[in-house]
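I am sending you the entry underneath: sequence plus fold tokens. Let me know what the token row says about the fold:
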Amino acid sequence: MNPQFLLWLTGAMAIFIGGATASRAYIASNNILVLILALCLYCVGNLMMVRLMREGGLGLAISASAIAQLVVVNIVAFIVFGERLSLPQLAGVGLGIVAMALMLFPTEGGA
């Protein structure tokens, strides 16, 4: 996997996680400015995804993004908001991690 792809993926994930955290904070505070911040972060994250789709293809970019968000959002939900997952839900997150590792493994295929 191209290091530049991974760097852009990391940046997009950080922005999406910021948006998700702001969305959750909006639920707690009901402050419209927090909602506007969340929407702006989601827009920037989606614009970054366009570049990832060009480099890695639609399937890889969206799948890698979804799994990375799955893992990181659950970490943020646990640490910041005190949310807990059940054992089957934790198993699902674990399978997502395995799927991500398999998708980023170098292969002969390409976009």
The chain has four helices and no strands.
